[in-house]
Amino acid sequence: MMKQTYILVVILFAILSIANAIPHQLYKRATTFAACPTGSPNIITVSIQPDPPLANQPAIFTVSGTLKTDVITTGSKLVIFAMDDNGNTLGEALTDDICSFPGMTCPANYFSLIRKVQILNLPATYSFVVQILDASGKTLGCSLGTVTGT
Fold first, then answer.
1. What does UniProt give as the signal peptide span (predicted)?
2. What average pLDDT does the segment 91-116 reach?
3. Contact (Cβ atoms closer than 8 angstroms) between residue 84 and residue 142
């Protein structure tokens, strides 16, 4: 009986050691967007699907918010770009005229935009910056979301 208990304990320790050594493949890296470190006069909400985005695949960005101090007018832009840990832009920024989005009428203080973006082959850690700019380039809202490698 003592020999069987000893064998069982050794087997349990072996299983525990193997289980702890296996990488946690199911760990989901969710991208949490928050106001840009430089500040944002208005809060904008951003979500991305799939989350995290897959390299060389399209991702859907949903951007919405209500501007409290400003109004979106003709010439206002939605800007989306990725950057590395050093603040270098990865690829080209995507810039769209907000007033040309389906269902959007300008002037407006509320917006809800959906934009499909082709994702590049990105490094393990990177950030997405989503900005709402007026016609003169002034930031009306900004959100930053960082994806970190496992």
1. 1-21
2. 93
3. no
